[in-house]
Amino acid sequence: MSACVPARAADSDRTERAHPPHSPPPTGPRRFRIAGADLSASIAVFLIALPLSLGIALATGAPLQAGLVAAAVGGLVAGRLGGSPLQVSGPAAGLTVVTADLIQRYGWRTTCAITVLAGLAQLGLGCLRVARGALAVSPAIVHGMLAGIGVTIAVAQLHIVLGGTPQSSVPDNLRALPAQLANLHPAALSVSVLTLALLLLWPRLPGRAGRVARTVPAALVAVAGATAVAAAAGLLLPKVDLPSWRNHALAGLPDGPVLGLAAAVLTTTLVCSVQSLLGAVAVDKLVSGRPGPARVGRSDLDRELLGQGAANIVSGSLGGLPVAGVAVRSSANVRAGAVSRNSTMLHGVFVVIAALLMVPLLELIPLASLAALVMAVGIQMVSLHHIRTVTRHREVLVYAVTTLGVVSLGVLEGVALGIAVAVGVALHRLTRTRITHEEKEGVHHVHVRGQLTFLAVPRLSRALHLVPHGADAVVALDGSFMDHAAYETLQDWQSTHIARGGTVEITGRRAEVRIAEPEALTGHRPADGTEKARASGAGCRCRPWTAWRNHQCERPQPVAGGDGRPSAPGEGEPEPSGTGGRELVRGISAFQRDTAPLVRGELARLAREGQRPTQLFLTCADSRLVTSMITSSGPGDLFVVRNVGNLVPPPGEESGDDSVAAAIEYAVEVLAVRSITVCGHSGCGAMQALLDSAPGGADTPLRRWLRHGLPSLDRMGDASRSWARLTGRAPTDAVEQLCLTNVVQQLEHLRAHPSVARALRNGTLELHGLYFHVGEAQAYLLTERDGEGVFDRVRAVDLAV
């Protein structure tokens, strides 16, 4: 008996620890619940997925049921097992060309087997945790691949739109196009044109009725409308033919040459994986930009690869198309407000129900309408935004070669060509280093533009040896990388030159991040000031750029003297009066101790050469707005003008105060700045004062100055104008709306100044609008879209591209 008592006591202790005596009794198993947002989002995604799945199956030459199988499996399997909760998977337009080529070469049942093998390969890659490696592929290659696939789809579907049959390749389709135009089918063409018209015009319906109508997806409206018109007119057209599920073809054993099958599996794996992983990253961006608290975690890319692999195994085994993440459906899912993977899975359930119960309705759809829908999707895959992006980043050659390779040779061959060109471009940039030497006023300047590798060492050595012994030298490094060979060359020359009586100054914005040993080369200490803090015992862990008045810093308390009072200031230290004075001296002392040694060389250069800023930054005088921190700029970068409300008085309305106009003229005419930024901010007291101002008040200097903001107030109250807005959320109140409107209005005032107008006409100046939310530490950049001023959130990933 005694042996049992401790055991029972232990059990009792464990029970009490698990359920404290004052806690509510444990509840039963949680019931499965579906959020209303997930239900509505799943319906929206289903309405988009149904016509697109049939259209993609038509474009590949597969049985039309294969598109429904892939959509259902993508929703249920990939939705349940994948690592991106809100990404919707299914038959993707990016896989159309690959699948069509496989069907033509090996037949449908072998294509299903290839899909299964590709899924197994994805499972292996997911287990190896290499998903992040797929993101190392240049975006220019991915966008070029999608553009090439889009061109191939559009050219092939054009034949069905005209009432004919597509050929096997883009060159063959282009050669057959004149004959097809001569023998077009009027009924098919009319149904296709109606589909495209509805697809284009439905999202642009105006007014409140248009907003309500746009809740129905344009793809569904286009196909349903064209089907209804064709049925009412009695047009004789080829229509969707869904055979009995009893005759549905399942996967068979692979039949074909081993090397060809291996290449097919590799191609399918590559396209499915890259498209799905990039789609998962894009979904994360959409979710983070959605207003309200983010209740969805970030994507687990390795798990996403495992989920896609499982979905392809199931889809291929059941006779479905290859599965991948689909951008159109995923973005619709996020914008519809989905909060969990339940929306993706429910859409798969709806596809299953439609495939079993809606066959008579689906068989009314004309094939020409589906072809027009898929052709529009293919055209949209050639994105002008992507073309502008790769052009801005000098990747247009990689993009063009990949696109042409995919169109003329195939997906795998085109991607291989794009990778080869991307490697060649990277090597060219790595070896393209310009090194110049010149003498100015007795100082020898060696300027290095580009990356310093061992390939540039001979040219660097020749330039350095042009500097005479004992001369003053400045080496400017305008690059972000230096390998060990270049470092040794520069360090040896510096030591030798200084030993022979010369001086060496290493400058350049990126000089401090070249290699792991910048301190020995440049004389700079770590920028965080920790070494100095340890030596002095100050205990301050703040970086030098955080030395503003309200920053949080753990400072030691003053040591008390023998009488119990704090010790007096040190010898030679000024003893200011008042708390403000003590804060001022403390800040200056921190600058001299921590920051001045780091910036002294750069400020000495600016003192010699004078100021040459590239930007005029006009912002509010608010103490919370730190311009250098927001723009990551340093001394000499910005010409800053601050006033109450970041106002720009129009020419002729200054009334004796020409300070802003003078600064604008000086910046444009004398300093030749290349851009002007007007920056507003959240919680602006000037905008609040404008909203609160009543007519007939006292004529104070502040009131006289704020009259330059009255046009912004009038602009916000003008019902004929579109309001400036933020992406991702609505303005929180009238003050924020006025802050946004004021930036747009002050830019108009700025354009009226003669010096600005001339520079804009000559193309030597550009204007920018910026809004900074202080509480969120988030910057928004003004862009013009659809005639509206839209402030887009600036993200860290955008800056890294």
Structure description:
There is one protein chain. The protein is an alpha/beta fold and 801 residues long. The protein contains 33 helices and 13 strands. Strands 8-7-9-11-12-13-10 form a 7-stranded mixed beta sheet. A 4-stranded mixed beta sheet has the order 3-4-5-6. Helix 12 (258-288) runs parallel beside helix 14. The radius of gyration is 33 Å and the shape is globular. The N and C termini lie far apart (74 Å).
Would you summarize the structure shown here?
Catalyzes the reversible hydration of carbon dioxide to form bicarbonate. The protein is built from 33 helices and 13 strands. With 801 residues, the chain is α/β, with parallel strands linked by helices.
Q: What is the secondary structure topology, with strand pairs?
A:
Elements: H1 4-18, H2 36-60, H3 64-81, E1 89-90, H4 96-106, H5 108-127, H6 131-134, H7 139-161, H8 170-182, H9 186-201, H10 207-213, H11 218-233, H12 258-288, H13 301-317, E2 324-325, H14 327-335, H15 342-357, H16 359-362, H17 367-380, H18 384-392, H19 396-408, H20 411-431, E3 434-440, E4 443-449, H21 457-464, E5 472-478, H22 484-499, E6 503-507, H23 518-522, H24 530-536, H25 578-609, E7 615-620, H26 627-630, E8 638-643, H27 659-670, E9 675-681, H28 685-692, H29 701-706, H30 710-717, E10 725-726, H31 734-751, H32 754-762, E11 766-773, E12 778-785, E13 788-793, H33 796-800
Parallel strand pairs: 4-5, 5-6, 7-8, 7-9, 9-11, 10-13
Antiparallel strand pairs: 1-2, 3-4, 11-12, 12-13
Helix pairs in contact: 2-3, 2-4, 2-11, 2-14, 2-15, 2-17, 3-13, 3-15, 4-5, 5-12, 5-13, 7-8, 7-17, 7-19, 7-20, 9-11, 9-17, 12-13, 12-14, 19-20, 21-22, 30-31
